[in-house]
Amino acid sequence: MYSEDDYLMLSGIQHFAFCRRQWAMIHIEQQWAENFRTTAGELMHKKAHDAGAVEKRGGLLIIRGLRISSRELGLSGQCDIVEFHQNENGIELFGYDGKWSPIPVEYKHGVPKENNADELQLCAQAICLEGMFQIDIPYGYLYYGENRRRSCVELTDDLRKEVKRSAKEMHDLFQRGYTPNVKPDKKCKACSLENLCIPKLQKAIKVRKYIEQNIKTND
Predict the structure, then answer these.
(1) What is the C-alpha separation between 120 and 84, in angstroms, rounded?
(2) Residue 194 — left, alpha, or beta (φ > 0 → left; ψ -120 to 50 → alpha)?
(3) Burial class (CB in 10 A: 0-12, 13-18, 19+), 169
(4) Alpha-carbon torsion (155, 121, 92, 46), positive or negative
């Protein structure tokens, strides 16, 4: 269990899944740069994050910008939307009759990714909600703005284990203050930190170290 002082940003788990170096540059080195993708994504989240806004439609209660956290993961953040569906097996909510089951909904600007970064972020949100409300959450939704569709994500045991492994590794790197190296990849072109990271220089740095080590050995 982590203390509140040690909590890391929950949204960082998506950066971590995309690239560990990107995550460390943002969350350890405090570096950031905007591009079209990050700007468009931020605008979408601002629209979804009408913090504290509550909307009721019959047996559906929609809460935007709900603050969440998990002592088990050591993460905290904010849900775009949490839908509370009226369900006799759910929980009681102050000010509302009946019982309700929470389902997280995460908004993304683009289209579904090749990796499972979005699914991991959604699952981390669900784990936070489960701890806060003491209820099991079997699935959540990802909404993609480019195709205007949302997909149901089953929160499997494997996905939950990966979330917990990632959270632990994030904390380990953060405590060490360590930024991992990275192999240049096609995904680097989509990264807003490409000009700060300069992934092509990673190889050059390794070559320079090799030469320096050999010079010392020969001396």
Answers:
(1) 21
(2) alpha
(3) middle
(4) negative
Tens digit of pLDDT per residue, the chain (219 long)?
899 999 999 999 999 998 999 899 999 998 866 543 443 445 455 555 566 688 999 999 999 999 999 999 999 999 999 999 999 999 999 999 999 999 999 999 888 888 999 999 999 999 999 999 999 999 999 999 888 889 999 999 999 999 999 999 999 999 999 998 877 777 777 777 767 776 555 554 454 554 555 565 555
Token pair for 147: 């195709």
DSSP conformational letter for 187 = G
Calpha distance 155→153 (Å, rounded): 6
For 150-168, b/e burial (b = at least 16 CB within 10 A) is eeebebeeebbebbeebbe
Total number of residues shown for the chain: 219
Distance CA 217, CA 20 (A): 33
Q: Give the type of residue at 52.
A: G
Structure token pair of residue 29: 């080195």
Strands 139-144 and 96-108: parallel
- DSSP designation for 218: H
Are 173 and 128 a contacting pair, CB within 8 Å?
Answer: no
Tokens of 138: 């079997």
